[in-house]
Structure formats: C-alpha cells, structure tokens
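User: As part of a screening pipeline, I want to sanity-check one entry by hand. Below is the sequence and the SMILES for pyridoxal-5'-phosphate. Please return the complex as structure tokens so I can compare it with the automated output.
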Amino acid sequence: MTGQFKPHGHPGPHARDAVFSVPPYVGGESTLKGVNRVIKLSSNEGAFGPPPGAVEAIRAAACSAHRYPDGGSAALREAIGVRFGLDPARIVCGNGSDELITLLIQSYGGSGTELVMSAHGFLIYEIAAKLAGMTVRKATERDLVTDIDAMLAQVTPATRLVFLANPNNPTGTLVPHAEIARLRAGLPEDVLLVLDAAYAEYVERPDYDAGALLVDAGGNVVMTRTFSKMFGLGGARLGWAYAPAPVIDVLNRTRMPFNVSSLAAAAGIASLGEPGWIERCRDHNNRARAALTARLRACGITVHPSETNFILADLGSTTRAAAADAHLRTRGILVRNVAAYALPQCLRITIGTDEECDAVAEALAGFVRDHG
Ligand SMILES: *Cc1c(COP(=O)(O)O)cnc(C)c1O
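Assistant: Here is the complex for your manual check:
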C-alpha cells in the first residue's frame, strides 16, 4: 500500500507532501491464518486483561451511551490526581496518550522546526513529527540505553521538542532521574521535554521517576501516561498528560471537545480503584519476566535487561530473527518484529500469563534445537 498514492501521481485532490513522508504506523498483529487460539505477545498489553471492575463499569456506562461525555473528564482527572498524588487541574486526558503526543507535536513543532529523539525511540514521535513537517534528529544510544549527552548534541536553534520514552519501547531500558534532570538542565527553556512514561507502573528501580518531579520543577517538561499497558485498557483508548498550566491550556485548545468517551472514562476510574491490581500485575511481571529471560538465555539467546512488561530478544542476525518469528507463528505465537526501530536482529516479546510465557519459551527452545 505504501507509496501507492504518490503526492502528485494521480488526478484529484492532493494532501500535503508531509503526509507521504512516513509509512503508516503498523500495530502488533492479532490474528494468524488457520490458528484459532493465537497467543498475542506483540503489543505489550497487560497480561491479565482489563480489571474486572473496569469491565463492570463499561457495562454500567453503556446504558447512558446516548449522553455526551463530560468534555473536561473532571471525574477521571480527579481519580488520577488522587491515585498519583497530582493536581487534577494540571492533567489533560486523551484518546490514548498517542493523541496527546500528537497534539504536543502539532502545537509546539511544525514546518521548519526539529524534534530530537533517541535512535531506537518510540516510532509515533517520528511519524507525528514528519506529518507536522518537522525534521527528526536521532541520537545514538549506548547499549540500547538513551545517551543524554548524545541527545543534547542533537539540539539546535530549530529544536522545539525532545521526546524520551522512559522506560523506552522497544528497548525496555530506562534512564535514571538524575540523568533526566541533567537532560532538562541542558535544554534551552523554550524547548519542550516530553517524558513518555507508558510503562511507569512496572518500574521498581529506586533511581527512577516517571516525570512528575521535573514537571513540577519548571515550565518546559510534560509527562504522558497511559491506561493501555498495566491497566489493560488499550482497546478503550485512554491516556493522560501532566504538565505546567500553559501546556495544559494548549492541549485543551487543540484536543477534540469529547476526546475521551464516557465508557473509557468510567473504565479508567474503575481500574484505578481496583483493589491490589498494580501489586498483582507488578509481582507477576517481575517473576514472569525473570523466568522467561532466564529460559531464553539458557538456550543461548541474548536478552536485554528490561524494566517493562516486555523483553527484547537479540537473535544475532536479521535472518535468524525472521526464522524465529516464522517458527513462533507456526505455533500460533505472535511477537513483535522491530525492524522499523532499526533492530532487525531482535524480537520484542510481551510478558503474558505464565502459560503464554511457557509457550514462547518452549517454542524458542525448540527453534534453537532445530535451527541452531
Ligand atoms: C504503548 C505505548 C504508548 C501508549 O499509547 P496509547 O495511545 O496510550 O495506547 C505510548 N508510548 C509508548 C512508548 C508505548 O509503548
């Protein structure tokens, strides 16, 4: 499909050239031909599905689905504020954090300006920036960890935004708070630093902060969060941003008036209140991630250390990664090919249930036995 409709290659209306500067985002696959029960470990969705209370809340909200939602998501912002100890007035909710990321890029970037991200950073930043007509500058990483000095070296007078997923997808690595503070201190005050903490709920390292400390410390830092990972609501589309008041104002001007559906808001509030959910998910993730990592390493596969609900397995070459991917597919297992992230030798594997982790570990062990 990509490239089929060149900017001026056909008669009729023409979209802006920038629209064709990036291939469309491809999400993790969810079906396999001829397989009834697919094991989907390709999109980092929570291992346990949506919290039961969230399912119940969506059911209850369905009865008033004819009513427009509260455009300001007041009750949801209040619940987020209570759960994370933040001022609800400095929170904006969105149709997934992707919406808020895109709005920040459209509002603060634009034609002739630049965005800085790391070499293996989250692809949505690049796609949204190029669509907005921006130039993307990528900083080299060190052992798949964002290198703060390399990021700062990419900043020019045209830089408007610096994006950092912390921990990062697809590498799974994080940058400690002190290093993030150093990044911010090195930026001109008119550059917006966006800390995308989609996996914050999984992190246990004491040297980590999801971003609220730096948002509170100054005027040019935003933290984005999502309900799509640990809270199991990827299909409901719900994310939020915590930011200084002027950035909140910009997001409220640019977002759609009813960007968060009443069903998503109800599910979000309920998931925040689900007793023991975060602890249960985190405990399982720690245990299952360690076990899967150990099993893959035992059969000679390099696994990068991860602070998230996925691991990055390095198969050593593009061909071996493709062969392993094909082998997993014959067993009904979908993982993520991360060639688009300049990591064609790697596969990203979501931490699923124990049963799913067993299946992928066994299948990869079989692959190594059969193919070397
Ligand atoms: C999954 C993910 C998101 C979440 O996107 P939503 O639009 O909230 O579903 C954002 N950033 C990163 C790095 C992610 O991996």
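Points to compare against the pipeline: The first helix runs from residue 52 to 62. The chain has a mean pLDDT of 96.
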